[in-house]
Structures are given as structure tokens and as C-alpha cells.
Design brief:
The complex is a heterotrimer of chains A (467), B (88) and C (482). Helices cover 40% and strands 19% of the residues of chain A. Chain A has 3 domains: 283 residues, no CATH class; 111 residues, no CATH class; 57 residues, Arc Repressor Mutant, subunit A (Orthogonal Bundle), CATH 1.10.10. In chain A, helix 6 packs across helix 8. In chain A, strands 5-6-9-1-10-11-12-13 form an 8-stranded mixed beta sheet. In chain A, a hairpin with a 5-residue loop joins strand 10 and strand 11. Chain A is α+β, with helices and mostly antiparallel strands and 467 residues long. Chain B is an alpha+beta fold and 88 residues long. Chain B has a domain of 41 residues. In chain B, 27% of the residues lie in helices and 7% in strands. Chain B is built from 2 helices and 2 strands, in the order H-H-E-E. The radius of gyration of chain B is 23 Å and the shape is flat. Chain C is α/β, with parallel strands linked by helices and 482 residues long. Chain C contains 15 helices and 11 strands. An 11-stranded mixed beta sheet of chain C has the order 1-3-2-4-6-5-10-11-9-7-8, with helices on both faces. The longest helix of chain C is centred in the last third of the chain and has 21 residues.
């Protein structure tokens, strides 16, 4: 039986400042070492200043993952030397004096499986190392502290995953959840990283680090399971060790053994008192939390009768569900949901989503209403949407300018139907023996009206005119 | 009791190149042996206490740039990097 | 020379009244330093701009502009506090070339009050020591007898104040490092309640227990300094709100009816007979002023030194890890080195005492040993705090000699680590428990000073200063012979 556990690091990129200082949390726009101060650069005499919002956001994440959240949290030092670590210790969280990290003992459903969350902790990201030089002889290591001190939430799971696919599904759910909470943007480069630990048949755990993306995580898990299985088949014992993912060769490689066992000498961080988050504040945080994806999904299904698959897609995407919330009314909710999931999502790719500023909730609402009143057919509404995305013009303007209005005038339609009947004598003949052929004729009418004929009305009139 | 090997191990951990571990052995051993007195303090059941701060008193989340080019006041290299030794 | 022997408050009066100019006083101070510091080695660096700053201040005063409360008072600063754009070495080769890029909070506050930082003063390297003998730049000497140690680790602070090389000083106290040299040099040395004074800009040694504290000629001066530098600081999450308390007002309200506990464990074995006599005399004096004195036992004091050194070594080992010489330090290029070998070689520049403490600091919290040493030490700290809190239910103040011995000769104890440790036995309790404590110069015996220590409960700094002032007024001490 395969067991996979995960350690996910997620940057709280939606915060304005770093975890312990007021430098910018999202460092990506800066030239090297232009987003630093004495605190995050580890200058002598500097002291950490804990970010209140970071604690709140981390607590919300813990709540969203059904964790218990203690009323007092503490920070610890993890001591080791590395050039990307300005103080040569990392301020992080542990649970050695009772439960002192922001959250613990939670769970999240992946399909019908429950994945247990061991703990959630708040900690700081180290800086970045850049290597220059072609050979190992002339290699230069350059350090950039812009990222040092960026707030990270580490999410540790129990080894409840049994397949790499489950891991992938979980990561997608987690991404959506974090975006929905408004705490992070997992699509930003390096914003979400994960390590995995893998064991088979109750054997030794192997830790895999240096996995660059979620896609790689699935690959790495798959590779590692295969590697362990093949060792197992040949009765070769699996060593408990740390391996790193070699992205070029697509394999896991045993990490060079350290000279000495790392001993982190964990102890309480004396510069940060224990933070009290009493039950009143915790209730306030719960109320402030955006509605969960599951809750939205349920509401869409039960309140608006939106089909489950549509509700699923809509609720998992914060951008579109926000749009839905704004655009819908009691009567057009289903239609709006439909437009978003079947048409809009196909027209706009992920990157552009933020550039769809021309599209507003009002557009969607009016478009949905237009479809429902029969002013425009579903077919035509696609063209309308295209135009709106390009120009931002309002719905009625677009419908008239592109002449997308439905042909629902009976007399006009009767005329067009007669034209089609006259032009298709063979088909008309066939309808007598094969009634389905009438759909072909409806199609011809639709063609003639450029899709603007009301299909139901057309069918009725066609039937009448054929007899 | 602390051995020379342990001192060697710890000084590697603390990244201090001690030329002669024996030189430090005697004094360090004396000091650590003195700490054995803690065993008779009878404090096993004590709780560890720490100062506390309510979450409302923590720093507000605002971006305030340091305002000066700190990198210019540090050992810098190639413009704005810090030069580290090569990693093995 | 006469006018250098005034207190900080007297200095302020003299300048306000126009009796002395700041420039004159600063000039005379620099002359004094030039003439005697070769013998004493209190200073590591002198402020080249001091005279100019004094001149500017005199101009401001003449033109009737608002001037800060210090009126150009020359203050020395222990070299572990950051003053922007000046060298801050912690008396270590590791920070030989370190120029601080920002001001410590206490420095900004004093700058606003128009203090003049006359220079940075000597200390034990990274504040680890009791005699200033562990400075990488040579020891400081006790002005009462230059063959003797001035105490430590704020030795330079105490020497500069007691020998009139400045009017006041800021030191730092982790296990007695302000009170001990104050006692050895016959000055007032004050360690406030933990959290009263911001540590932002104080180069950390043991951050969970250390505090910046003033060394001054009188208790009133210490209260004056406290008024200027105490208070909650957003740059230091461990500071507490003191509601802008005025420590100077009503400082002479006396100690009639106050109950003072004599800490049994601090007047027992190992105490110098002269020190014991002095302590008894101090107790009599206090009783004469209306205080009620009685013995009280703090059992955990016996373990306090071991706990103290275990905890501080652990914190120091971590706080000093940042000194890898990559961003700041001294000249030593990374060219041709591999990471581990560079760092280990660079850090050889720590002095032997610091290296010893870091080896201990790596050992006692390590996976196999934390339970026996570090965790036990933390528990002793907790229990000691409980004991002293109990004591303060019955007593308003506690008393003990600051140091169980009189100053010893330079070199005498440097090779006996445990004997050196035990010098701290009377002072570490206040650090471990976060309580305010002060050393008052009390007596000179055989030409060497003895100081008496008073301790109060957390946030009772005002009461402590009142009691200290009352005791101080009962003695009249000879002048320093230099």
C-alpha cells in the first residue's frame, strides 16, 4: 500500500508586507536587494515585528481546513547555516510545548476521501540564491534577500494519499481554496511549493524535495513509487533518506549526505511574545471569511437549481463566482451561470481574466435577461459576448449594432420558412417518411436568419406550414 | 561528561573552525559539568512561561520601504548582490 | 577639572543658567579623556564631531530655540548599540568594520533630546563576561586601582562615568552587566523591568533577558535617563507600555514603612566578609529610614547561575549565527572558498570566551541534551519567577550585595570559568525573572568599591528608584583617585 504525505509551502502573496518587517510581501517586481531593510537582511540589532494580518490570514486558512486553532500561538527558531538565511536561523512554528502553531488536526475532502491535515504553521521564506559560472570551479553564488521574510504558510498532511492523482486533485482543491479565501495567488511563480514523503508497503519514508511545480509533484511521486516498487521486488531495502527531484532527468536523486546530522536546536523565539487570539477574535475571523467553495456550490444547486457540474466549475473559481454573485438575480441565475461556464470561460484564458475589465456584471445580467426574454438566442449571445469583451459596449447596443436580435416576428418568420420550404423540396418530401428531417429544415431556417430565429417557434411554424 | 568528539561535532554545527579541540575541552567540560547542578533543582513539573501580546497590538500590514539603499551599506558585489562562497 | 564632577541634573542646570557652555564642557571632557584614557582604556572610539555638535547646541540655546532635555550632555555608549554611520564593534574582531546603518531606539530618543554621544565604550566581547577582560581590543581598568578589573560586561561605561570622562552612560545588562561594573567602579547602575526599554538596535546576546540600562553618578540621574529612554516601541515587540511614567517626580518620598527582604542565598557562602559587613550597614541605614528588613529565602538562586549560563549560551549561539562575514564584518574575501570552510574560518575571529559560550550554546539545546540542560534551565527560570513573585507578596523590595566579592585583579579569575560564573550569583536572578534592579555605590574598602543592590517587582521601577535614592543619601563617598 502506497502512502504519500505532503508539506506544502504557500506564500501569502496578497499581504502588503513581509512577516516580520514592512518590506513588500510580493518581491517579484524588484531588482536584487532593493526590497530589504535591516530586519529582513539580518542586520545586527534588528528585531522581528510580527504582521498582524499574516496571523489572521493563517488562522483563516487553518479554519478553512477545519483545523483547531489555539488561543495562543508561539514562534520558534530553527537554527542552521545557509547563505539564503540572513540570520542563519528561520523563525517558524512548532508544537513542542503543546499546540502552539496556528492550526492543527484538520481535514479536507478530496472526492469521497478525507485527507487529514496535521498542522498549519506560519514561517518566513529565505532569500534566493543565484548561481553564475559554467563549471563548478568558477561558480559564484549570489544572494538576493528580496524574498527573505516573505510570509509562508506551511501545510502538513498525514500520509493519507495513495496515488499521485489524489495528490494532484488535492493540490487543485487547495489552490482554489486559497484563492477563494483571498490569501494567495498560487499561479505566481514560486508562490506554492511542495515536498512529498513516500513509502510503500509500510516501509521507510523517503522525503522528496526541490519539486518546482504541482505537475512535477505528480511526476515525482509517480517516479518514486515506481523506484521503491522495483527495489521492493528485488528484495532490496528502501533507505530512509531525503532525495531531490532532478527536473532535467525527471528522476529523484539521493541528496548528497550532509557532513553532520542537522540539529536545529529548536527553542522559543524570545523576540516575539506568545500571540493571544481569543475566541471573540476567532469568531470575528470566521465571520470575515469569504464563503467556502462547498457552501457556494450547495447554494447554487439548492437555491438556483443550477446543475451540479456547472455549480462545481463555477464555485471553484473565485473570479467567476464573484462575477456570478454580482450579475445574477433570482430569475436569471441559472442562465448567468450557464453563460459563464459554457461561453465566457471558453473565450477568456486564465491570464487574460484580469484583463477582462471591459466585461462587467451588468453585461452578464443584461445578456442573461435578453436570452430569457427571447430577445436574443443562445447562439447569438456568444457573438454578443465576444463583442462585449472587445469593446465593453452595453448589451442592447451590441445586439442592435450586430443585428443579433432574435427573429421572433411571426410573419417575418413565416416568410423565411416558406423560402426554405420552396428551396428544399427533397427534404420536405422526406419529412413525410422521416419526421426527424424537420430538424434539417429548422437548421436551414437558422442558417438563413443567421441563428436569430427562435428555434422553438420555428419548429412550430414549420410543422404548421408543412401540413 | 563531554568528550572531545562532542566538542568537535558541536563546533562543526556552530560553524567555528576550532584548531585544537583539546584547548577548549577542559574549560567547556568544567562549565558543562557545573550545569549538572540543574538535575537537583526538582523542576520537572514546572511549566515554561512566556510573555504574551494580544493580536490587536501587532504591526499593521502596510508596505513601507526602508527608504535607503541598504545594499550599498553592506558588502556587495556585482551591483546589488551579496557574494557568498560557492556551495559544495 | 572641577566642573566635570557634576551630576547630569547639575549639568543641565548649569547650562540652562548660562554658567557653562556646552562647547566648554565638551572640550574639557575630551581633554580629560585624552589625559587619562590611556591608563583606563574605557573608550573604543571618540566622536570626532562632538565639538561641532556642542557649538551648534550653544547657538540654539543662545537664540532661545527649544533644546532637548539633555542640553548637550556628554554620554558614552556601550559599543553594542547601533549609532547610524558609526562603527559598532561589540568589542569583537568579527565586527571590526561594521558601520551601523540605523540608530537604536534609545539613540534616536537621546538624539532628539540633544544628547552628545562622546564615544563608544569598551565591553566584554559581545557582552559575554564579567570583567571586560574578554574585549578583543584589550581590557579596561578600574579607575579606583588600575590593577583591578572594572567589572563587566559594561566595563567601559562604568569606567567612563566614574572617572568623569562623561556625565552618564548607557550599558546593557544580561546577567548583571550594568550593575556589576557599577558596583566595582562606584557608580549607580540600573537594570529596568524587562520590556521597559526598547532593545531595537542593541546587538543581541541573550534577547529574552537582557535590557539596556543607564550608569550614572546619582540615582536621580538614572531616573532622569529612564524618563528619556523608557516606553513602548513598535520596533520591539517585547516592550511594554509604561504610560509615560515620570520616574523623577517624588523620588525623595523616602521608604518609611516599606518592607525589605534580605535574600538569604545572596549573603551566604562565598561572600567576602567586607561585603557582608557593608550589606549589614546598608540594612541598618535602611532601618534607620523607617524600612522593615527581614530575611527571605529564594531557593532557586542556588540553580540560577547554571540556568542563566545555559539559557544565555543557547540564545547567544543563535543570535551570533548571523556573523558569517558575508554582509558585514571584517575584510576577508570569499574568493576561492567553499561555503562551510569560509564560514568556519571567518568565525574563528571570535574571541575564546565567545567560542566557549557558543560551543556550550550548541551543546545544551541539542537534540540529545536539551532535556537535561536547556529545558531544565527554562523550568528553573519559571520556578524562580514564581518564588520571587511570592516574595513580593510580602515585601516591597529585596536587598543583597550586588557582587559577593570586591573587585579582583586583572587576570586573576580569567582561567577559572566557574569561579567567574559565580560572581553573577547575586545579579542573574533579576534578569531571569525580568525584575528591575539597581546597584548603589555604598562603601569604599581598601580603596575598592562595594555596591548594594535593591530589587523591586515588575513595573515598580519608580518605587525602586525612590528606595535607591533614600539609601544613596545616607552615604558620602570619597573621590575617585584619578
Amino acid at each position: 500500500m502506497t502512502k504519500i504525505g505532503l508539506e506544502i509551502h504557500c506564500q501569502l502573496t496578497n499581504l502588503k508586507s513581509k512577516l516580520f518587517c514592512s518590506c513588500k510581501a510580493n518581491y517579484r517586481e524588484f531588482e536584487p536587494n532593493q526590497n530589504i531593510c535591516p530586519i529582513c537582511a539580518g542586520m545586527p540589532g534588528s528585531l522581528p515585528r510580527l504582521n498582524q494580518e499574516a496571523v489572521k490570514k493563517a488562522t483563516m486558512i487553518a479554519m478553512a481546513l477545519n483545523c483547531s486553532t489555539p488561543e495562543k500561538i508561539a514562534f520558534f527558531r530553527k537554527n542552521y547555516f545557509y547563505p539564503d538565511l540572513p540570520k542563519n536561523f528561520q523563525i517558524t512554528q512548532l508544537n513542542i510545548y503543546g499546540d502552539t502553531s496556528v492550526g492543527g488536526s484538520g481535514s479536507i475532502s478530496v472526492g469521497d476521501k478525507k485527507i487529514r491535515i496535521t498542522r498549519i504553521q506560519l514561517e518566513e521564506d529565505p532569500g534566493r540564491l543565484i548561481y553564475e559560472g559554467s563549471s563548478s570551479k568558477n561558480q559564484i553564488t549570489l544572494v538576493d534577500y528580496n524574498r527573505a521574510g516573505t510570509p509562508l504558510v506551511e501545510i502538513v498532511t498525514e500520509p493519507d494519499f495513495e496515488t499521485p492523482k489524489e495528490v494532484r486533485d488535492f493540490l487543485n482543491i487547495l489552490s482554489d481554496l486559497l484563492k477563494n479565501l483571498g490569501v494567495a495567488d498560487p499561479s505566481l511563480e514560486g508562490a506554492m511549493r511542495a515536498d512529498a514523503n513516500v513509502s510503500i508497503h509500510g516501509g521507510n519514508k523517503v522525503e522528496i524535495k526541490n519539486i518546482g511545480s504541482f505537475h512535477d509533484l505528480e511526476k515525482a511521486s509517480h517516479f518514486e513509487i515506481t523506484r521503491q516498487e522495483s527495489l521492493h521486488d528485488r528484495d532490496i531495502p528502501i533507505v530512509q533518506e531525503t532525495r531531490h527531484w532532478d527536473d532535467k532527468r525527471k528522476i529523484t536523486v539521493s541528496s548528497r549526505s550532509k557532513e553532520e546530522d542537522l540539529d536545529y536546536r529548536y527553542f522559543l523565539e524570545g523576540d516575539i511574545p506568545w500571540v493571544k487570539i481569543n475566541s471573540k477574535i476567532q469568531s470575528e475571523l470566521k465571520l470575515q471569511m469569504p464563503e467556502s467553495i462547498n457552501s457556494k456550490k450547495e447554494r447554487y444547486v439548492t437555491k438556483y437549481n443550477i446543475p451540479i457540474q456547472v455549480a462545481d466549475v463555477l464555485s471553484s473559481d473565485k473570479f467567476y463566482s464573484d462575477l456570478f454573485e454580482e450579475a445574477h438575480t433570482e430569475s436569471n441565475a441559472k442562465e448567468v451561470a450557464n453563460i459563464i461556464t459554457t461561453e465566457l470561460m471558453g473565450l477568456v484564458d486564465t491570464r487574460e481574466k484580469r484583463e477582462t475589465s471591459k466585461l462587467t456584471a451588468i453585461h452578464l445580467k443584461e445578456l442573461a435577461d435578453a436570452i430569457q426574454t427571447g430577445t436574443v438566442s443562445r447562439n447569438s449571445s456568444k457573438n454578443a459576448l465576444h463583442e462585449i469583451l472587445k469593446t465593453g459596449k452595453n448589451v442592447s447596443q451590441v445586439i442592435s449594432e450586430l443585428d443579433l436580435g432574435n427573429v421572433s416576428d411571426e410573419s417575418e418568420l413565416v416568410g423565411i420558412i416558406q423560402e426554405v420550404i420552396d428551396a428544399e423540396p427533397q427534404a420536405v418530401e422526406q419529412t413525410k417518411s422521416n419526421p426527424q428531417t424537420i430538424n434539417y429544415l429548422v437548421g436551414k431556417v437558422m442558417q438563413k436568419t443567421k441563428g436569430k430565429a427562435d428555434p422553438t417557434l420555428t419548429l412550430d411554424l414549420l410543422k404548421k406550414q408543412l401540413t | 561528561m563531554v568528550t572531545t568528539e562532542e566538542i568537535e561535532h558541536v563546533s562543526k554545527l556552530m560553524k567555528i573552525d576550532v584548531d585544537d579541540h583539546n584547548e577548549y575541552l577542559e574549560k567547556v567540560q568544567t562549565m558543562i559539568n557545573y550545569f549538572d547542578i540543574l538535575d537537583s533543582a526538582g523542576v520537572e513539573s514546572e511549566e515554561i512561561s512566556m510573555p504574551e501580546i494580544p493580536i490587536e497590538e501587532l504591526r499593521k500590514d502596510e508596505y513601507i520601504p526602508f527608504g535607503e539603499k541598504l545594499i550599498e551599506k553592506m558588502n556587495h558585489y556585482k551591483g546589488t548582490y551579496v557574494h557568498a562562497p560557492k556551495m559544495s | 577639572m572641577m566642573n566635570l564632577k557634576i551630576s547630569a541634573l547639575e549639568f543641565v542646570e548649569e547650562v540652562k543658567n548660562g554658567n557653562i557652555s556646552v562647547e566648554e564642557f565638551i572640550g574639557k571632557t575630551l581633554e580629560r579623556i585624552n589625559s587619562i584614557d590611556d591608563k583606563l582604556h574605557a573608550f573604543l572610539s571618540i566622536n570626532e564631531d562632538a565639538i561641532d555638535q556642542a557649538k551648534n547646541l550653544d547657538k540654539k540655546i543662545k537664540s532661545g530655540e527649544n533644546v532637548g532635555a539633555c542640553f548637550g550632555m556628554p554620554i558614552s555608549i556601550k559599543d553594542n548599540m547601533c549609532i547610524k554611520n558609526t562603527k559598532t564593534t561589540c568589542a569583537s574582531k568579527m565586527l571590526e568594520n561594521f558601520i551601523a546603518p540605523y540608530d537604536a531606539t534609545v539613540i534616536s530618543k537621546l538624539k532628539k533630546q540633544d544628547a552628545i554621544f562622546i564615544g563608544k565604550v569598551n565591553m566584554d566581547e559581545f557582552a559575554m563576561g564579567l570583567s571586560t577582560e574578554f574585549s578583543a581590543f584589550g581590557p579596561s581598568k578600574n579607575p579606583w586601582n588600575t590593577e583591578y578589573v572594572p567589572g563587566g560586561s559594561s566595563g567601559g561605561s562604568a569606567v567612563s562615568v566614574s572617572s568623569f570622562e562623561c556625565v552618564a552612560s548607557l550599558g546593557s545588562d544580561t546577567g548583571g552587566s550594568v550593575r556589576n561594573p557599577a558596583s566595582f567602579c562606584s557608580t549607580v547602575g540600573y537594570k529596568p523591568t524587562y520590556g521597559l526599554i526598547s532593545r531595537y538596535g542593541l546587538i543581541s546576546y541573550a534577547n529574552s533577558i537582557e535590557q539596556i540600562g543607564p550608569l550614572t553618578r546619582t540615582v536621580k540621574d538614572a531616573a532622569f535617563m529612564l524618563n528619556l529612554i523608557a516606553g513602548i516601541d513598535p520596533n520591539d515587540n517585547t516592550t511594554v507600555n509604561n504610560n509615560n511614567e515620570d520616574y523623577l517626580s517624588n523620588i525623595d518620598s523616602g521608604i518609611e514603612g516599606k518592607k525589605i527582604g534580605i535574600i538569604t542565598e545572596m549573603i551566604g557562602d562565598g561572600i567576602d566578609p567586607e561585603v557582608l559587613t557593608a550589606t549589614k550597614e546598608a540594612i541598618s541605614k535602611l532601618e534607620g529610614l523607617g524600612a522593615i528588613c527581614e530575611e527571605v529565602s529564594l531557593e532557586m538562586v542556588k540553580y540560577s547561575v547554571a540556568a542563566y549560563y545555559t539559557i544565555t549560551a543557547t540564545e547567544a549561539g543563535s543570535n551570533l549565527a548571523r556573523y558569517d562575514n558575508l554582509r558585514y564584518g571584517y575584510d576577508f574575501s570569499v574568493e576561492g572558498y567553499e561555503f562551510n570552510s569560509y564560514i568556519s574560518k571567518a568565525r574563528k575571529n571570535f574571541g575564546p570566551e565567545v567560542i566557549r559560550r557558543m560551543i556550550i550554546g550548541g551543546f545544551v539545546p541539542s537534540a540529545g541534551h536539551a532535556g537535561k540542560y536547556f529545558l531544565k534551565a527554562m523550568k528553573v527560570k519559571s520556578k524562580l519567577t514564581k518564588e520571587i513573585n511570592e516574595a513580593f507578596k510580602k515585601f516591597d523590595l529585596l536587598i543583597a550585595p550586588t557582587v559577593p566579592v570586591q573587585p579582583f585583579k586583572i587576570g586573576e579569575k580569567i582561567n577559572d570559568p566557574v569561579s567567574l560564573f559565580l560572581i553573577d550569583i547575586n545579579t542573574v536572578t533579576a534578569n531571569l525573572t525580568g525584575k528591575p534592579a539597581i546597584s548603589i555605590p555604598f562603601k569604599i574598602v581598601n580603596g575598592l568599591p562595594i555596591g548594594i543592590q535593591l530589587v523591586a517587582n515588575s513595573m515598580n521601577d519608580k518605587l525602586l528608584l525612590q528606595a535607591a535614592h533614600a539609601l544613596e543619601q545616607t552615604v558620602s563617598l570619597p573621590e575617585v583617585p584619578i
